[in-house]
Every structure is written in structure tokens, then in C-alpha cells.
Design goal:
By secondary structure, this protein is of the alpha/beta class. The protein has twelve helices and ten strands.
Length: 321
């Protein structure tokens, strides 16, 4: 009789979980983006429209910017673990922040559950048109011959751009100077205006300036060449594999969110990304690459980047504060 009661309980548990998945969502879902408007939230707003159509419920994107994404991440970490408040953010929240700050208002390993990968933006290592170099080896040779005469735009301590130039300094024995800026846009404008000679930017923001011949690409820092610039070699092809960097974006839920709900959100996000029209008009047209991947893929990518980041931050001499 006891075993029969246990079996009945298991059946009701499974049925309950399935019903929970089928019912979700029953009210509006909030996507918190920890960045200012006008950036990657454009992608998440497009995704929200598709999810709203699929779910029959409003999906609201709310920007909670500030403190290197910590404010928005904390809000989601403290939200009810029911799938109705989710975090849409990039690698910085889960990788760089752990190496930059001695104390975070969230635990990057325990406060969230991965849901889905969404997109990635590869980085260009860029130079001003006036700088007489065309690849990384020429840059290193020029920097050695002109010590402390080249500068790069630094828009955020611990950013992949900062790490790349600091590692170039250490490994190649050069002295590129950091000049602080308030964002990628101002860095690119500073390069185009001749204030600085070097910088890094995602393909989605840098490509227009490259096409206008205001900037030039010295290397791609991703794993493959960019289809719009097939003649530009990757950093690895040029002999600088330590410069590999990738900016990815994903979706996370508060820890404790039922797996059935996580799996449903993940599956529906993946279904949107499988829509060729959506990808072409909302992602690829902005210079962004879709990045299909479920919760396990996202968790694996975080682990890989944390291992790589630990070495990079150590080499760059950046310690948590």
C-alpha cells in the first residue's frame, strides 16, 4: 500500500510539472537588461516581441543599467524563481565581474540558472587610418620602435579590449598607453578623430566606420574570419592566439526556477532563433551573429570563459577591488 501511495505521488508530481510547463506563462514576463537603452537591448526587444506572440502574454524589456551590470543582475537574483523575471545579459556579468570585484551583490555561480544562448558579437582590433600598420606584427614592430607613442581607448576596466592591449604589452614587450573613454562609441569616435590610434569594437558598432574608411581592421579576435572582411586574418592566424575574445549574450533565470519552466523558455528562444527571417532582419542586419545553444551550452561557455579569463586577468595584473 505504501508503494502504491508513493507511485501515485510521483504520477501527480510529473503531471503537475507538465501542467506547469503547459500553463507558463499566465501573466506578463519581464526581461531585465542591465545595460543602457540603445545597445543589445534592441536585440532582446525584438526577441520579446516574438516570445509575446508565441506565449500570448506581454513580454516587457526593462533596462536597469549601472555598476557594470551588477544592478540589473542583483534585481533578477532576488526575484521570485518562477520564470516571470529573467536576465538578458552578456559575458561580462558572469566572467569579468568575478575578477574585478571582491564582493558582488550576486553569486555568478549560484544565483542563476542558465536558460539559453542568444547571440555573439565578434571583436575587431582596430587602428586609425593614419597609423602606418596593417596587421598585428606590424603593430608590434611599430610600437617597439615608437615606445609610449601609441594609445588605445579604454572604456571599461576589465573589458576584453583592455585585456587584449594589456596582454599585448606584457607578452610583446611594448608600451601601449590606456586612455579612458565612457563607452565603445566614444572610443571609435576618438580613433576616427585622431585622438588615439588603437581600439576594439564589436562588429555591430565598428563596421560602419570601417566601411567608411575611417578605421581599419588589424585582426579579428574571434575564431574565424568575418564574412564581410574575408581578407582580414584572425589574431590566431597571425600568431597571437591569446587575443581570442568573444562577446556572447544569453538569458538566465533566478536560481530555483523550475526546470520545466527553464526548459520551456529555452526551447521557445531557440525556436525564435531558428526563424531565418527573424535572424536576417533582427540579428544579422545589425552585424550580430545568432548563437543557438541550450542551458547546458551556455553553462559550458561560461566555464570556458572563466578559465580563460582567470589567466588573462592574472597576466594583465588586474586584481579585484
Amino acid at each position: 500500500m505504501k508503494w502504491m501511495l508513493v507511485l501515485i505521488g510521483l504520477v501527480f508530481t510529473c503531471v503537475g510539472a507538465q501542467a506547469q510547463t503547459q500553463r507558463f506563462p499566465q501573466k506578463p514576463v519581464k526581461i531585465i537588461v542591465p545595460y543602457p537603452p540603445g545597445g543589445m537591448d534592441i536585440l532582446y526587444r525584438a526577441l520579446a516581441v516574438e516570445l509575446s506572440n508565441k506565449w500570448g502574454q506581454p513580454v516587457i524589456v526593462e533596462n536597469r543599467a549601472g555598476a557594470d551590470s551588477r544592478i540589473g543582475a542583483e534585481a533578477v537574483a532576488n526575484a521570485a524563481p518562477d520564470g516571470y523575471t529573467i536576465l538578458a545579459t552578456g559575458d561580462f556579468t558572469f566572467v569579468a565581474n568575478r575578477f574585478l570585484f571582491a564582493k558582488l551583490p550576486y553569486d555568478p555561480d549560484k544565483s542563476f540558472v542558465p536558460v539559453s544562448l542568444v547571440a555573439q558579437t565578434e571583436m575587431f582590433l582596430l587602428a586609425s587610418q593614419s597609423l602606418p600598420v596593417n596587421d598585428l606584427r606590424e603593430l608590434v614592430a611599430y610600437a617597439r620602435a615608437h615606445p609610449k607613442q601609441l594609445s588605445f581607448g579604454s572604456f571599461s576596466k576589465g573589458s576584453q579590449a583592455d585585456l587584449a592591449f594589456l596582454m599585448l604589452n606584457k607578452r610583446e614587450g611594448i608600451d601601449l598607453l590606456a586612455v579612458p573613454y565612457k563607452g565603445i562609441g566614444p572610443v571609435l569616435a576618438g580613433m576616427a578623430g585622431g585622438e588615439i590610434q588603437l581600439g576594439m569594437g564589436g562588429t555591430n558598432v565598428a563596421e560602419p566606420l570601417i566601411q567608411a574608411k575611417k578605421l581599419k581592421v588589424l585582426a579579428m579576435t574571434g575564431s574565424s574570419r568575418h564574412p564581410h572582411f574575408p581578407n582580414v586574418k584572425t589574431a590566431t592566424e597571425q600568431g597571437f592566439p591569446y587575443l581570442i575574445s568573444r562577446l556572447w549574450y544569453g538569458v538566465f533565470a533566478p536560481a530555483g526556477t523550475p526546470s520545466a519552466v527553464v526548459n520551456k523558455i529555452s526551447a521557445d528562444v531557440q525556436a525564435v532563433l531558428a526563424n531565418k527571417e527573424f535572424v536576417e532582419t533582427k540579428i544579422a542586419s545589425r552585424g550580430i551573429r545568432p548563437l543557438s545553444g541550450n542551458a547546458e551550452d551556455l553553462a559550458r561557455r561560461i566555464a570556458e570563459d572563466v578559465a580563460r579569463g582567470e589567466q588573462a586577468f592574472k597576466e594583465a595584473g588586474i586584481k579585484p577591488e
